[in-house]
Amino acid sequence: MDTQRDQRDLAAHGTADAPHRGSHCITGEEYEVELALREALSNGVVHGNRLDARKLVHVRCRCKAGEGISLTVSDRGQGFAASTILDPVAVENLEAEHGRGIQLMKSAMDQVSFQERGTEVSYVHEVSSQFESRCA
After folding, report:
1. Which residues have C-beta within 8 Å of that of residue 20, sequence separation ≥ 6?
2. Chain Cα centroid distance, residue 79
3. Mean pLDDT over the full length of the chain
4. What superfamily does domain 3-134 belong to in CATH?
5. How far apart are alpha carbons 77 and 57 in whole angstroms?
6. Among 10, 51, 63, 81, which is least packed by CB within 10 angstroms?
7. Which residues, including other chains, have CB under 8 Å from residue 100's CB and lie 6 or more apart?
């Protein structure tokens, strides 16, 4: 059994039972939140916890119907300095194997921030006005 692959697969596909499902707080905008959650989980498992099956990745979710959702994903790794992340769309980085997850999170969410020396990422997605009436 390939434990590393299993952990990556869980991080990438483990959002089927994501905390926001069925909550009606982001109706119609689930894709963006799931994309950011998948990326944060994958980063926590692969880069933070270094695929160590003994280390957990924690998710905290707050949802307010009609307003949006905030999630915090934390890992047990050593962290990183967010300022050292290279621009994934710069010509010299286009063929890099890593470095797009944070950019994807930033493009999908309204706010993204890193705390605890980079072992924790928090993000917020506000309901866009076209979906507000559905979420009440």
Report:
1. 26, 30, 33, 34, 37, 61, 63, 69, 71
2. 15
3. 82
4. Histidine kinase-like ATPase, C-terminal domain (3.30.565.10)
5. 10
6. 81
7. 88
* Alpha-carbon gap, residue 51 to 41, rounded angstroms: 11
Q: What is the 3-state secondary structure (H, E, C) of 45-88?
A: HHHHCCCCCCCCCEEEEEEECCCEEEEEEECCCCCCCHHHCCCC
What pLDDT score was predicted for residue 9? Answer: 56
Predicted pLDDT of residue 29? 86
- The pTM of the full predicted model, rounded to 2 decimals, is 0.77
CA atoms of 9 and 17, how far apart (whole Å): 14
Boundaries of every domain in the chain:
3-134
Contact 71, 36 (CB under 8 A): yes
pLDDT at 8 exceeding the cut of 60: no
Residue 96 has pLDDT above 80, yes or no: yes
Structure tokens at 3: 């434990």
